[in-house]
Design goal:
434 Repressor (Amino-terminal Domain), elongated, mainly alpha, 8 helices
Length: 144
Amino acid sequence: MSKLASPKVNVPIGRRLAGVREHNRLSQTEFAERIGLSPRAYQNYERGEREIPAIVLRTLYEVFGVDPLWVLTGPGWVPADVPLQPNLESLEAVVIAVEKHLARSRRRLVPAKKARLIKMLYLHYRDRSGIDDDHVGEMIQLAA
């Protein structure tokens, strides 16, 4: 590590790299391959153990459209200008759960309320492995 870089500087950069990788739903190995690095080298950058070279920043821009300045300085951990890829499996699971609860409880929601409920539940469960049925029921009670 050069005298200009330190863990205090490199760790947030590594966290933003991880944010880009997670945003694209790639493993460390897959992400490293996409930008032409060995998995070990990439892991060192993501952990903040090595400073990131300019060529890696350039490649991130070319491959993922990520602003190099954002990688270096932030703010946040996920690039704000990159639209999130929808997790269609999670969306489908949320819609099915909402419909089951509404049918079981014989409740109806106006389309606007139902859409907001599905959106909120989707955002909550998008990156999780499962849906909490009780939580869905509680949210429907609040929305109705």
